[in-house]
Amino acid sequence: MGSASNSVVKLVVAAIKRANALRLVAAIAFGSVLAGCAQSPKRLYHWEAFQAQLYEYFKADSSSPEEQLRLLDAQLEKARARNAPLPPGFRAHLAMIYLRLGRDGEAKQELEAEKVNFPESAPYMDFLLKRMTVPKS
Amino acid sequence: MRTRVFSLGAAAARWGQPAATLVVAAVLGACATPPAPYDYTAFKQNRPVSMLVLPPLNETPEVTATYGVLSQVTLPLAEAGYYVVPVSLMDETFRQNGLNSPAEIHDVSPRKLREIFGADAAVYIKVTQYGTSYRVIASETRVTTQGRIVDLRTGELLWQGTATASSSENRNSNQGGLAGLLVNAIVSQIIETASDTTFKYAGIASQRLLSPKKNGVLYGPRSPNYQKD
Prior knowledge:
- The structure holds two protein chains of two kinds.
- Chain A is mainly α.
- Chain A has two domains: 1-42; 50-133.
- Chain A has six helices and no strands.
- The relative contact order of chain B is 0.18.
- Chain B has one domain: Rossmann fold (3-Layer(aba) Sandwich), CATH 3.40.50.
- Chain B starts with 7 loop residues before the first helix and ends in a 19-residue tail after the last helix.
- Chain B has ten helices and six strands; from the N terminus they run ααββααβαααβββααα.
- Chain B is of the alpha/beta class.
- In chain B, helix 8 crosses helix 9 and helix 9 (178-190) packs across helix 10 (197-210).
- Chain B has helices at 8-29, 41-46, 65-70, 74-79, 87-96, 102-106, 110-117, 167-176, 178-190, 197-210; strands spanning 50-53, 57-58, 83-84, 121-133, 140-151, 157-166.
- In chain B, strands 1, 2, 3, 4, 5 and 6 form a six-stranded mixed β-sheet that branches.
- The interface between A and B is large, with 41 and 52 residues.
């Protein structure tokens, strides 16, 4: 009697475990289907809040360029520490902020850095660099 | 005729279940198999390396729509393996040339765009829904975008598609657990500094529009999946 009820308990436990396992498998399958379109965990670039910073730049009531520069610099340092590649346009956007601050020399450096890291950007970066060397009227 | 006449109670009962199903379908929709596979002939012939995303046309009353979307299109395309022309500099270049509205910018010839930005393809986006609609039962924040990718060397249309993100799918899928968690995960990655909710959904819609998937944009040369799709 004791062993019979014991085996019943075992059966029930096994059934629960199986149900849980099934649910887990279903969850994983569902999750991987979703993950396929949501995003893969491994990203090519170190994004952090870069897109929110772009939005901040575009907003009419945006924060000061100094504050924007501070956040970009912080991200740059973090990426460097992790040896993680910065996204396309990051250095170019940094250049844009330097231009706003009248720091043209640093802006040029960042445009050059964008070109080095993404040779695809060369035509546009050259277009910008050429215009920057023309004295402002 | 008779089906149109039902009480409010019946309506609630009728809509509860299908609404939940629809939401799950919408979340999965990004992966579900649509009837006709996309014709990638032009895309594969042209294989762009770099993309120029023009400021999106805004067909909504919400003034922030253009830049809410523009600031979030670089991630999906860059992660897909493309170089994306820096959006802030691009916008400034147009402004300094007297082009301030997306409509004017969308009218610039592909040849001219190629000349200035050196990109292989341009992405023309239209925002058709952006913001929160306040309804009696539940308010909803929704962003819908349409995108077209045109090769700037040949003028050929390479790809087009649409995508939507809505707060109602998030809310309802909380019952479903995992789907809700995943949507939340994406949202929470998108950032804390930008306070408006619609911006988050603009980010999800942009990812859905421009990330490689069934019938979506193909992988670009910087992706390990390049030419495997």
